[in-house]
Amino acid sequence: MHQNVREGHEWRHWMDNYNEGLGLVYERLVLNDYLRMLVGRFGVRHVLEVPLYGMAGVSGINSVALAQRGCVVTLVDWNAERLALVRRVWQELELDSHLTLVHVPDLTCLPFANRRFDLVWNWAALWHVSDPAGLLREMARVTRRLVFTAMPNRWQPGYLLRKYVLDRPFFARVDERWTAIGRAQRELEAAGLRLVERGVMDIPPWPDTVMPATEVLRRLGLGHERLLRRFREDGGWHWSTMDYYLGHQPDLYTAVERYMFLERAPCPGG
Questions:
Q1: Within-domain flag for 152
Q2: Which of 42, 105, 108, 145 measures 20 to 30 Å from 115, CA to CA?
Q3: Is 268 inside a domain boundary?
């Protein structure tokens, strides 16, 4: 029985179109920095990302930075079609020797032994899952060291714009209660884990609408050709994490890094 049904079909587009846009590239690169820090700080070697679906853009590449650091990566998804496409992407990156893909229809019953992984994690995934609490308990069971989970900030201006103007159908599919990250923290603590760190990440100096600029302009009724051309690939607006991984855009991190001043500023209460 499939336990996870809160997803649309948008993900299929990104499996062929790697031009994700500046917002998604920014998100991936700051996440990469954090994941690499965890590897060094906690000696992470064996990683489970469950589920792999959550972030927009190309599915299944959130853990690429970990594989590049020599970690053995297991990715879990409830969607067998998506898993096949993720395998193709990792083969293109020549990292599939580091990868195990597992199809699990019910995320409250993971097919792994207790304390199997050093790091068990997901990104923006909990609200897609029909039983997030059950998933979190399983994440706690199969880790021997770390659990990391993150959810969108529901008070971020781009979130509110997306919810009430740009993408109302998306919010009819997800469970917004899990944007309150304290809810996840309480579940993990009840499962016997203790909090090591809590904070914020992916805070670019613009409202994050989780869609390309051209699509935002169209949905706001500003899609005249001259303006759209500035934000299309033929106008020089090509931002692709995959191209960065493949070596086609080697300077991409440097180009994005100049926007990370908020990311690196002290966070009050963080």
A1: yes
A2: 105
A3: no
